[in-house]
Amino acid sequence: MKNNKIRVGIIGANPDRSWGSVAHLPALQKLPQYTVTAVGATSQASADKATKHFGIPHAFADTFQLANHPEVDLVTVAVKVPHHQTLIQAVLKAGKHVFSEFPLGKTTKKSKNILHTAHSSGARHFVRLQSRANPELAYVKHMINKGYVGEVRAVHVNYSLPVYPTPLCYD
């Protein structure tokens, strides 16, 4: 790892319409222990657009090339769930670590296949709900912990957040 930073490739970083480009990428760019070195998209034109927009050095339309690039240590998969298995397994087979959005797979069988590939490759795979890191929800948790609403006995929540978070919320 160059400069002791974890070098990240993001699959699903179309700057016009992806969760990867409006949530994952801005958050990673604000964290000092990471550097985003590559983006992957369904077309080379889209990947090139993302590299220009975000100032990232490498663009790929081929997951296998991104996963095998020597300047990528970890890959974030921020695409729709039906594509998770193929993409995640390609990255794991390249020996790279993977962070993906929840759910891991469309079915239990697909999730187990991904888990088997992770165990076989020796790479680590992480799955997370992106909402847990949402600044607004963190504030609600803080208020509950401070006792603002008293003893919580049951919760039913309906809320609306911006479709795409603003990068300012990661400052």
TrEMBL record:
<dbReference type="InterPro" id="IPR036291">
    <property type="entry name" value="NAD(P)-bd_dom_sf"/>
</dbReference>
<protein>
    <submittedName>
        <fullName>Gfo/Idh/MocA family oxidoreductase</fullName>
    </submittedName>
</protein>
<dbReference type="GO" id="GO:0016491">
    <property type="term" value="F:oxidoreductase activity"/>
</dbReference>
<keyword id="KW-0560">Oxidoreductase</keyword>
<feature type="domain" description="Gfo/Idh/MocA-like oxidoreductase N-terminal">
    <location>
        <begin position="6"/>
        <end position="127"/>
    </location>
</feature>
<dbReference type="GO" id="GO:0000166">
    <property type="term" value="F:nucleotide binding"/>
</dbReference>
<dbReference type="Pfam" id="PF01408">
    <property type="entry name" value="GFO_IDH_MocA"/>
</dbReference>
<dbReference type="InterPro" id="IPR000683">
    <property type="entry name" value="Gfo/Idh/MocA-like_OxRdtase_N"/>
</dbReference>
<dbReference type="InterPro" id="IPR050463">
    <property type="entry name" value="Gfo/Idh/MocA_oxidrdct_glycsds"/>
</dbReference>
